[in-house]
C-alpha cells in the first residue's frame, strides 16, 4: 500500500494502521451496520469540516464499525474521495507515558497533527475523543490544535465517545461541535444479535473445542437480553457464550456440548438471581416462612403474606416485564420492616459466605443511601421536594449521574428499599409508579435504567397510629386512600401490601436476647471474654424501654447504652482474662 502512505515517521511510531490490522485479522462482515458506515463515508467525503464523532454506549460496537470502514477502504470498495485514505488509530497511553511534561506533550501533538495534515491521505482515529479535549481526564487539551487543522480536508478525524462525554465536552464546545458531525450508534436488536452470534459460533467451537447447538444460541440471546440489561448487545451475548464454553470444558461429564443449562449457570454466577427454578430454589421458596420467621419476631401473618406473594412472583421468573416483586410494608417504627428487607436480600441474593452484618454497611458517597452487595437503601425523607428529584435520577446540566440511577446500575440485582415512602415528593412517587408498572425509568440523561431484576420494598409509618389503636383494622389500603396518603394507582401497582403489628413485651424479650448475643459476639472478638445477662436484667431493660409505638428502637438504644457503658467501666477499671465470664 505504498501508494497510499505519505512520509509519516511520527504517526508510524505512535499509531496503528487499522486497514492493515483489519485485513490481517480477517475481519468478518458486521450485521446491519451499513447505515452507520454509509453515514460516516458521506461525512468523510465532504469538502470541508469532514470529521466524524461516533457516539454510543460502551459495548454497542463502535470500534467494529470503524474496523469495517477501514477494511472497506483497503479493499477499494468505497467512493473515490476515500479510496486513497488510511485510518490510523492513535496510541494515547503510550504518548502520555513517554511525554510527562505538559509543554512537551502539546508540542509533540502539534507536530503529530501537522504531519497527519501534510500527508493529506490520513484519517486519524481517536478512541475516547473526550480525553483529548479536557485536562480533567486526558491530561491534554487539543481543542485549539484540532480546530486549527481540522477545518480543512488536509486532516480528518474520526472520534469515538459516549453520550455522557459527548454532552459534556463536545456539544457544549461551539468550535469542536461545529467541526464534528455526529453519528449515533445504538444497541443492535435481538434479531441482529442472533445473527452476529451465529456467525461467530464456528470460531468459538474451534477455539474451545466444543459444540454449540442452535437452541443454546437462542437461549443465550433470550436470557442475556432479559437479565444483563446493563450491558448492550452484542457484547453481553459474546461474553456469556465465551464463559459458557469454558464452563462446558470444565464439566467433564458431558460430550463437550454447550447445553442451555450452562448459560443458566453462568448467569446465576454473575447475577446471583435464580435464572431457573432449581430444586434448591424450589426448596427455599417452599420453606420461605420458616427462613424469614427465624429472623423476624412476632410478625408471622406479615411473613406469610409476603412469602405467598414472593412465590407467585417467582413462578413468572424471566417472563415479567415488571420488577421481580414489589411490596409496601406498613406499620409502626421498630417492628421489623427494614429487617425483613435485609432478610429477603440475604435469602434470595447473597452468596453462601455472606453474613447478615454486611447488610448495614454505609457507602461513602452519600449518607442518606446505604447499600450492601444486594441491598440498596434510600431514606425518602431526604427527597421531599421536587428539586431533590435530580439528586436521584441525575441532572445533565450539572453532570450529576443520580444516586438512584448509579446505585441500580452498579447493583442491578437485589432489593431496593425505600424507607418512609410517604415523605417522598409527589412527582417522585410518579417515577416509582412507572418503575412498578414498566420495570424501568428514564434518568436525567435520557438513558433507560432497568429495574426488572430488583425486589422493590417500600416502607411507611403512615398508618401506624391507626394500627396501634386497632391492630385488626380492616382494609388498610382503603384507609391510606381515604386519608390521601397514597393514590389508588400507586397502591395497586404493588404485588402486596404487608401490615406489621406493634410488638408485645414477650416478643421484645426474644429480640433483646438476640441483641445481647450480637453484642456478646462483638465483645468476644475484641477481648476474648464472655458476657452473661440474667433474665431479670433483660426484663428490667424492657420495662425501662417499652413503648409499643416505637417497637424495638428504644430497646436497642437502651441495651447498647446500659450494657456497653457497664462493660466499658469494667474493662477499663481492671484487666480481664481470656475466657472470663462477666455477669451483668
UniProtKB/TrEMBL annotation:
The keyword Chaperone belongs to this UniProt entry's keyword annotation: yes
GO term, biological process aspect, one: cellular response to heat
Matching Pfam families: AAA (PF00004), AAA_2 (PF07724), AAA_lid_9 (PF17871), ClpB_D2-small (PF10431)
Superkingdom: Bacteria
Residue intervals of the Clp ATPase C-terminal domain: 503-584
GO CC terms: cytoplasm
InterPro entries: AAA+_ATPase (IPR003593), ATPase_AAA_core (IPR003959), Clp_ATPase_C (IPR019489), ClpA/ClpB_AAA_lid (IPR041546), ClpA_ClpB (IPR050130), P-loop_NTPase (IPR027417), Sigma_54_int_dom_ATP-bd_1 (IPR025662)
Keywords: ATP-binding, Chaperone, Nucleotide-binding, Repeat
Domain (AAA+ ATPase): residue spans on this chain: 48-208, 323-504
Gene3D superfamilies: 1.10.8.60, P-loop containing nucleotide triphosphate hydrolases
UniProt keyword Nucleotide-binding, yes or no: yes
GO molecular function, one term: ATP hydrolysis activity
Membrane-spanning residues: none
PANTHER family: ATP-DEPENDENT CLP PROTEASE, HEAT SHOCK PROTEIN 104
Record-given protein name: AAA+ ATPase domain-containing protein
Species whose genome carries this gene: Candidatus Roizmanbacteria bacterium CG22_combo_CG10-13_8_21_14_all_35_9
Taxonomic lineage of the native organism: Bacteria, Candidatus Roizmaniibacteriota
Amino acid at each position: 500500500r505504498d501508494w497510499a502512505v505519505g512520509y509519516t515517521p511520527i504517526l508510524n511510531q505512535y499509531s496503528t494502521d487499522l486497514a492493515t490490522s483489519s485485513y490481517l485479522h480477517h475481519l468478518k462482515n458486521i450485521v446491519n451496520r451499513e447505515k452507520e458506515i454509509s453515514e460516516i463515508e458521506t461525512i468523510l467525503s465532504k469538502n470541508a469540516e469532514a470529521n466524524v464523532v461516533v457516539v454510543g454506549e460502551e459495548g454497542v460496537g463502535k470500534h467494529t464499525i470503524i474496523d469495517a470502514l477501514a477494511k472497506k477502504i483497503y479493499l477499494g470498495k468505497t467512493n473515490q474521495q476515500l479510496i486513497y485514505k488510511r485510518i490510523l488509530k492513535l496510541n494515547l497511553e503510550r504518548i502520555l507515558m513517554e511525554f510527562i511534561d505538559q509543554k512537551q506533550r502539546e508540542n509533540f501533538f502539534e507536530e503529530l497533527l501537522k504531519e497527519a495534515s501534510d500527508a493529506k491521505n490520513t484519517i486519524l482515529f481517536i478512541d475516547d475523543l473526550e480525553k483529548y479535549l479536557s485536562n480533567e481526564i486526558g491530561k491534554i487539551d487539543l481543542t485549539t490544535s484540532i480546530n486549527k487543522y481540522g477545518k480543512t480536508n488536509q486532516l480528518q478525524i474520526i472520534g469515538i465517545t459516549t453520550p455522557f462525554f459527548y454532552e459534556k465536552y463536545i456539544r457544549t464546545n461551539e468550535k469542536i461541535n461545529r467541526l464534528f458531525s455526529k453519528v449515533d450508534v445504538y444497541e443492535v436488536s435481538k434479531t441482529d444479535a442472533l445473527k452476529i452470534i451465529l456467525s461467530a459460533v464456528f470460531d468459538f467451537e474451534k477455539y474451545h473445542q466444543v459444540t454449540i447447538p442452535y437452541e443454546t444460541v437462542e437461549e443465550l440471546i433470550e436470557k442475556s437480553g432479559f437479565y444483563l440489561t446493563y450491558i448492550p448487545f452484542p457484547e453481553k451475548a459474546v461474553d456469556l457464550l465465551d464463559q459458557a464454553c469454558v464452563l462446558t470444558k470444565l464439566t467433564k461429564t458431558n460430550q463437550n456440548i454447550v447445553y442451555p443449562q450452562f448459560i443458566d449457570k453462568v448467569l446465576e454466577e454473575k447475577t446471583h438471581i435464580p435464572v431457573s427454578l432449581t430444586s434448591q430454589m424450589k426448596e427455599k421458596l417452599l420453606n420461605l416462612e420458616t427462613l424469614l420467621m427465624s429472623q423476624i419476631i412476632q410478625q408471622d401473618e406479615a411473613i406469610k403474606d409476603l412469602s405467598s406473594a414472593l412465590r407467585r412472583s417467582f413462578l413468572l421468573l424471566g417472563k415479567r416485564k415488571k420488577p421481580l416483586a414489589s411490596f409496601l410494608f406498613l406499620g409502626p417504627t421498630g417492628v421489623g420492616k427494614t429487617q425483613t428487607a435485609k432478610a429477603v436480600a440475604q435469602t434470595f441474593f447473597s452468596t453462601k459466605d455472606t453474613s447478615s452484618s454486611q447488610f448495614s454497611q454505609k457507602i461513602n458517597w452519600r449518607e442518606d443511601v446505604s447499600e450492601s452487595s444486594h441491598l440498596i437503601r434510600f431514606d425518602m425523607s431526604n427527597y421531599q421536594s421536587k428539586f431533590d428529584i435530580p439528586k436521584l435520577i441525575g441532572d445533565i446540566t450539572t453532570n450529576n449521574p443520580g444516586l438512584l440511577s448509579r446505585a441500580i446500575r452498579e447493583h442491578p440485582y437485589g432489593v431496593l428499599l425505600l424507607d418512609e415512602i410517604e415523605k417522598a415528593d409527589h412527582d417522585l412517587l410518579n417515577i416509582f409508579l412507572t418503575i412498578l408498572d414498566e420495570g424501568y425509568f428514564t434518568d436525567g440523561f435520557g438513558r433507560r435504567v432497568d429495574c426488572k431484576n430488583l425486589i422493590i420494598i417500600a416502607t411507611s409509618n403512615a398508618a401506624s397510629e391507626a394500627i396501634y389503636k386497632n391492630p385488626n383494622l380492616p382494609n388498610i389500603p382503603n384507609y391510606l386512600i381515604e386519608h390521601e396518603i397514597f393514590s389508588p394507582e400507586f397502591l395497586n401497582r404493588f404485588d402486596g401490601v404487608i401490615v406489621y403489628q406493634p410488638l408485645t413485651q414477650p416478643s421484645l424479650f426474644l429480640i433483646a436476647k438476640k441483641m445481647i448475643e450480637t453484642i456478646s459476639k462483638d465483645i468476644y472478638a475484641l477481648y476474648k471474654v464472655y458476657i452473661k445477662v440474667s433474665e431479670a436484667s433483660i426484663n428490667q431493660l424492657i420495662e425501662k424501654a417499652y413503648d409499643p409505638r416505637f417497637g424495638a428502637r428504644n430497646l436497642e438504644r437502651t441495651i447498647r447504652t446500659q450494657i456497653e457503658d457497664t462493660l466499658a467501666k469494667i474493662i477499663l477499671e481492671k484487666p480481664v482474662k481470656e475466657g472470663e465470664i462477666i455477669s451483668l
